[in-house]
Amino acid sequence: MNIIKKYELTNNTILLGNHTLYQIKALINIDNRVKKGDLGGYIESETNLSHDGECWIDKGVFVYENALIKGNCQVYHFADIHGNAVLDDDVRIYKFVDISGDVKIHNNVSIGGNVQLNGKVEIYDHACIGENVIIYGKNIVISGHCQINGSVQIYDYVCIGGFCEISGDIILLDNCVVNGDIKLYGNEVINGNEWRC
Fold it and tell me: Measured between alpha carbons, how far is 107 from 34 in angstroms, rounded to an integer?
């Protein structure tokens, strides 16, 4: 079966470390934003951006190494996505986001506003993350309709779900669980097998 290509690599390149990235150019209209001939962001190879679905990366976005953008994922405004990161479904990434490691993001997630994600992290199911959030470490799962913003920091073995709201100078680490209709604001450290449900 032949795949209809929706973009091509141009001769416009940028060097990030030892990775040569190529700017993409739309070969067809994609959703109602991207028109045939529009220039997009930069990828290392066609394995970084699927030709299926309506996924797209805007100018100022860099995707390389084994990272993959697919489905209807849209990435805007200065994002750096690399490592083994996979972004799928109706994910929206915008405004100064750095994603690396084994990060998996899918199912209607919105992330933006100077966010850093690194490590073994899975985010899904309508989560909204923004404004100076750092998520770093192993076995971090964020799901549900939770909203996380402010200067929140999340490290190693944390599970967040439900309709929780987390904002401010909150630090979550070391086997903690936050789930349900929980609101955490202000300045607090939650760790060591602590549960907030």
Answer: 22
Note the pTM of the prediction, 2 decimals: 0.96
Percentages (nearest 5) of helix, strand, coil residues in the chain: 0, 55, 45
Bridge-based pairing state of the strands 86-87 and 7-16: unpaired
Cα dihedral sign, 173-176-182-188: negative
What is d(CA 67, CA 42) in angstroms, rounded to the nearest whole number? Answer: 12
In DSSP notation, 59-112 reads TTEEE-TT-EE-TT-EE-SSEEE-TT-EE-SS-EEESSEEEEEEEEEESS-EEE
DSSP conformational letter for 49: B
CA angle 45, 48, 53 (to 5 degrees): 125
From residue 181, give the alpha-carbon distance in Å to each of 106, 123, 151, 163. Answer: 22, 18, 20, 5
How distant, in Å, are the alpha carbons of 80, 109, 195 from that of 155?
20, 20, 15
Tokens 């996924």, residue located: 55
Record the tokens describing residue 26, joined without a space: 């739309």
- Average pLDDT for the chain: 95
pLDDT in tens, 74-89: 999 899 999 999 999 9
Give 54-65 as a DSSP string: T-EE-TTEEE-T
Give per-residue pLDDT as tens, 110-145: 999 999 999 999 999 999 999 999 999 999 999 999
